[in-house]
Amino acid sequence: xxxxxxxxxxxxxxxxxxxxxxxxxxxxxxxxxxxxxxxxxxxxxxxxxxxxxxxxxxxxxxxxxxxxxxxxxxxxxxxxxxxxxxxxxxxxxxxxxxxxxxxxxxxxxxxxxxxxxxxxxxxxxxxxxxxxxxxxxxxxxxxxxxxxxxxxxxxxxxxxxxxxxxxxxxxxxxxxxxxxxxxxxxxxxxxxxxxxxxxxxxxxxxxxxxxxxxxxxxxxxxxxxxxxxxxxxxxxxxxxxxxxxxxxxxxxxxxxxxxxxxxxxxxxxxxxxxxxxxxxxxxxxxxxxxxxxxxxxxxxxxxxxxxxxxxxxxxxxxxxxxxxxxxxxxxxxxxxxxxxxxxxxxxxxxxxxxxxxx
Length: 358
Known about the structure:
Layout: E1 3-7, H1 12-23, E2 27-31, H2 35-40, H3 47-56, E3 61-64, H4 71-80, E4 85-90, H5 97-102, H6 104-125, E5 130-136, E6 150-151, E7 156-157, H7 180-200, E8 204-209, E9 211-213, H8 225-235, E10 239-242, E11 249-254, H9 255-267, E12 273-277, E13 284-286, H10 287-298, E14 304-307, E15 317-318, H11 323-328, H12 338-353
Parallel strand pairs: 1-2, 1-4, 2-3, 4-5, 5-8, 8-12, 9-11, 10-14, 11-15
Antiparallel strand pairs: 6-7, 11-13
Helix pairs in contact: 1-9, 4-6, 6-7, 8-10, 8-12, 10-12
């Protein structure tokens, strides 16, 4: 049976990867040391997800508590399983702009050094295994903020004749702009994955994600905005919108569609591939629009305030161009739009979130 290594296996994309791959016939080793609880507090713990996966897939899922910063531990794991490893999906990360500034060395060690440890272990022990990295659109820094955006009421938008109106492609440069420390650590990891593909001929890919979301997302104020937004709407917790009058735009892609993209790439891999991956023009929303939809779906009003302070490196507008991936992997298409994403989050979580209305 083919073996897949999934890092961050208790997180949103990691847990979706575990389930999907096992259903496809893989045996999966999941690496997760629940650092989300350290980053964002006990409400963001991934431990319950890991326990549910183990209960459901007891025969084919092996969770291992291993920190990817532990280079020797990573090497030993790959060495033990070298003959069976066919696929590595690397989703483990420190994912927050704001948190990175509080502990820059931890952020860089997890995002950059941890990625290097995995790449080197793969190169040494399973160089033909497909290596999939969940990168981020934050590698472009705040350059999207210099686009000629116009206010169209509930959102900022590009003119329809702009080259990137259909979505931002890989021609957007990453230099001479502010990245945030989180963006820098992810740029380093992204380039490492590309270079191991080019220099060593390994089948590697960087998926530069927009907003990755889904019902398993342990949303917190500093990360996972759609899940956290819906949770606050349902529970009555106050919510703060940071900057841009709530008109900033994000494309949002369901975790299931992300993992389907991983599987499509593994079926036809190449070296040093890079793709922007998000909801594209089919699934995007501004903060104000997302608030309205959450209120409609839940039947509750959100208690929110608009802060003038924007987060460093945050985007005013981001929509991914999916064309290059769709051309290389024509069997893949989005299956969730923004409405379906929000309803899925609500239907899977509302009962456990619900508290008496105030």
